[in-house]
Amino acid sequence: MIPYENLDSFQKQAIRRLREGSNLIVAAPTGTGKTAIVDHIAWEILERMGTIIFTAPLKALCNQKFREFSALFGGERVGLITGDEVVNDRAPLLVMTTEVLRNMLQEGTLEDPPSLVVYDEIHYLADVDRGAAWEESIVLLPPETQILGLSATAPNAHEVALWIEVIKGRKTEVVRYAKRAVPLKLLGITKETGLQPLKRVLNRVEAYRRDRKKGSIFKPVNHLEVISELQARGMLPALYFLFNRKRVEAFAYELGRYHSFLTNPEKRRVRDYLNALEIPEEARPFFERMRGLLLKGVGFHHAGLMPHIKRAVEVLFEKRLLKVVYCTSTFALGVNMPARTVCFDTVVKYDGHAFRPLTNMEFFQKAGRAGRRGIDDVGYVVVRFDPRDQEEIPVYKERNIEPIESSFKLSYNSVVNLLARSSFMKIEDFLSSSLWSFQHEEDKRRFTRRIEEVKSQIEALPTFLCEYEEELFLKRKEELEETLALKRERLLSLQGKLGGGEGLSPKRLKRLELKRKDLVQSITRLEFQLKGMRLEQCDFCPHRPQCRATERKRRHLNKKLQKLENELRFLSGYLVREFEGKCAVLREMGYLAEDDTFRIGAEILRRLHIEELLVAEMILEGLFDRLAPVEMAALLICVGRDPERNRIKPKVLDKGLRREIEDLVDYLVGLEERHLGGAESGKVNWSFADAGFMWAQGETLSHIVESFEVYEGDLISALRQALDLAKQIKRVYIEVPGFREMKGFEHIAETIDRLERPILREFSI
């Protein structure tokens, strides 16, 4: 640990604020030393017998912090709790994912309030899929617990701090350090420009795009040329970011065919490190595949790799024995591995819906890895441009990083856990304590101000100038509108009779049809009369132009007022409406009584966190009583996975079973569309079913990977999620009365035994 006297001034300031008892958000770039603040304050709390929870967004980062804290404070004082691993859970310093903390707070299993909770990467509050866990846990924390949030990218840190201060009643401060430990230099590269300042290259690219119809030629460079340029300029080691795993691996192997960056002594160090590693037998084929590449100083890193292999790449890069690592965005999250240079093969990514440029936050999260503190005077960021790309590329500036905006969303698990412990009034308080509500309060005030302004504008409009206008014109208009409404009502009634015309004689049908035509003509005449009557009254009036202008203005302002009032209504009750909508879904499914008391379905939901409704229905339908354990493994590996890439139809799951699940999904989607305006449940992807079946039968990992052409890390991740879900289901059978005696309990217990092979546990550490 760095001695206190050697800390930077912003680090000392942060520690002083925490000692004074304030909550704190530290906003400082990557590599400036936020970790040192945590180390010092944790040491002080442990010395006075306090407790700390350190939360992180990724299991990999949790494992890394667990190792670091164990080395610093001693293994007996540090514990780890993730979705699939529990180590020393009574320790005074616990490392866990934010979801685990949220679940503990919801279920009341956190025995004593911790002295301090550290939220690493607190900007995850804005994450669309997972941000709700951050918000819920912060809201649910007891007020006596101190909060420390860390972020490299939090432009609105003061707004987030004010929210925490308001809901916790404790002074919450911000320590901001804008200066990078190593300044960044942004560069661009094409064949024509070579390596030049980013803005200059971007201007040239834009000029080419404007002129290319005239026949100008502008060629991109390939990744090999980029690396050669960096090597010639002494700008290695480099991280090379791409947004496609296959290209990450292909680029690395292609570079390895043409380049070897290591000296003989460096190769020996790599070989010694690799030989000393204890690699599980099942992982060895994948490990050996990369060995030759690592011995050339080249590596690759993405979420589809096994943890052992990713860890080897990280360690060798940290030891400066890898000169180029091709990687995806996951390398920018949590892994503290700076390089001299960060390269972008492109700054355009596919986000699941469309191709778009990276946001400022996405760009600088990755670019921030450039520049090694104490080694480099400057960190280089190189963007490879392909002028043929159609997307307009923004000018990236750190001051333009997007603010943290709430992505709060209630899960069914959250809904039933709120109902279990709170009155509706307290639930409303909980919802109004969210960052979403806090951030939209200003929006509500703005809409209220605008509504008052528009009302004033309407009131200020001139009144009619004609002496008899109100008496003659408006009264007649009102009478015509009443007549029109009655005729429309009669038309609807007639159409209903005609629509259900079975049993009516042909003559009766003909008479009704004639009546319908008469009504339609009458309505058309009335509508025309209403539309044109103003002209009959006003044709020769000298005030006509002014009156018409006033009426147009009035109509425009009334439409504007209605739109603003609708927006205000939406904001004012959005979260309560979402909560009530989900309660309505649960009532219709029979999970809640009309007075919202729990039925058996709600008790099941309290113990599920993956596709809660779908899995609860499977349990209630007795599906797990009917399935053999290997079939259960094949099914569970499919649940909760994005269905958009559902290309492979499984051989092992019966077609009737799949139809049953798909019918259930359709039922849930229909319910949610009716009560919530859109579907949230029902994610099932059959692509991994056969792989899950083979795994449960005892097939080797390498055989399964070869059979299905999947990344080993993706398969491991899917198996771990299936195992996590199986453990949640087992908890239902154990804790909910009447379920332990069912066959499903025996089946799920055996499914867990078949899934939980040693290699899964080894890959979680």
TrEMBL record:
Magnesium in keyword set: no
| Coiled-coil regions listed | 477-574
Q: InterPro entries per the record?
A: AAA+_ATPase, DEAD/DEAH_box_helicase_dom, Helicase_ATP-bd, Helicase_C-like, P-loop_NTPase, RNA-DNA_Helicase, Ski2/MTR4_C
Q: Does the keyword Cytoplasm apply?
A: no
Q: Which domain of life is it from?
A: Bacteria
Annotated GO CC locations: Ski complex
Entry-linked SUPFAM superfamilies: P-loop containing nucleoside triphosphate hydrolases (SSF52540)
Q: Where is the Helicase ATP-binding domain?
A: 15-172
Q: Where is the Helicase C-terminal domain?
A: 222-419
Q: Name one Pfam family in it.
A: DEAD
Keyword terms, alphabetized? ATP-binding, Coiled coil, Helicase, Hydrolase, Nucleotide-binding
Molecular function per GO: ATP binding; helicase activity; hydrolase activity; nucleic acid binding
Q: Which GO terms describe its biological process?
A: nuclear-transcribed mRNA catabolic process, 3'-5' exonucleolytic nonsense-mediated decay
CDD domains xrefs: SF2_C_Ski2 (cd18795)
**What is the protein's name according to its record?**
DEAD/DEAH box helicase
